[in-house]
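Quarterly update from the structural biology core.
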Amino acid sequence: MRGHADGVTSAVFSSSRARIVTASDDRTTRIWDAETGQEITRIALDAAVTALAVHDGDIALGDALGRIHVFEAEEFMREEGRFVSGDKGPRIATSAVLRRPPIEGTCGKRLP
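Predicted structure, tokenized:
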């Protein structure tokens, strides 16, 4: 499989083993056919993809800006599912930003 322009940060097989989902520092997540190695579709973000989880056709991504994105990608995860040019790709289901609470420093000042 060739396609990512930067390092791959995660790779996961779908539950059916028919698909491989990869995440990369190149700001994309790609769904591949496990048998042929061909790219089926991709999800482009505006930051490096640092975390990846796949469950029941949903793809959850964490990015370098601390955001979590969940995509409904069931039709692309099924073995018989095929991406046709003109399809818009996986639909975003939700997006969130996780912010950690400030940490108290030893001198009593709040750290960012």
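Residues 74-77 form the longest helix (4 residues).
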